[in-house]
Amino acid sequence: MSGKIDHQLFSAQALTQEPCPKCGAALQLRHGKHGPFLGCSQYPGCDFIKPLHQNDGHIIKELGVPCPACGHELVLRQGRYGMFIGCSHYPACHHIESFDTAPQAQAEETQIPCPDCGKGHLVERKNRFGKVFYACDAFPKCKFALNQPPVVGQCEACGYPLLIEKKLASGTKYQCADKKCGHTQTEIKNGA
C-alpha cells in the first residue's frame, strides 16, 4: 500500500455532505477513467457531476504577452489534456496557442538536412509529454523523425549521411540513423 495521501479525497468526503445543486439529492464519490469525481446519487435521473482534479483550464502563470486576437494578456493554463496558452479574457476571447506556435517556444532548427526527403531540415520538437524528438520541418509530406540528437556524419557500414548521438556509460557512440542498418561507431566520419 502506498504511503501517499490524496488530500482531494478528504475534501471530497466533506463535499459529499452537500446536496446536489441540480436536484437536491445526496452526492456520492465515484471513480471514472479521468479520476475521482462527485456524482448525484439519483443518476441516471440526474446527471450532475463535479470533477475533483483541477483540469478545468485554471491559470498557472501570466506570460506578459498580448493576445493577438484581443490584446489582453496571454496566460499559461492547465487543462484536461495538459498545459496550453490561452487568453486571460476567456470566455469573451477564445484564442489559444499550443507550445509549438508560442513565440517563446519556437522549434529550433538544427540546419541538418533531412536525409529522407532532402528538402526539409530537422527541427527539435516536444511531444505532448514534454519529451524532445527531432523531425523534418516538411511534415506532413515527410514523416522522418528521430528520438536522439542527430549528427552530420556518414555511417561506416552503409554510407547513410546521418548519425544519432548515444551517450552511454562507456562514452559517446554514434549510431546510423537508418533503422535498417543500426551500425554503431565511435567516431564521426564525413562523406568524401
From TrEMBL:
GO terms for molecular function: DNA binding; DNA topoisomerase type I (single strand cut, ATP-independent) activity. The keyword Cytoplasm does not apply. InterPro entries: Topo_IA, Topo_IA_Znf. Residues 18-55, 65-99, 113-149 form the DNA topoisomerase type IA zn finger domain. Keywords: Isomerase. SUPFAM superfamilies: Zinc beta-ribbon (SSF57783). One of its GO terms (cellular component) is chromosome. It comes from the Bacteria. GO terms for biological process: DNA topological change. PANTHER family: DNA TOPOISOMERASE, DNA TOPOISOMERASE, TYPE IA, CORE. This is DNA topoisomerase. It comes from Vibrio furnissii.
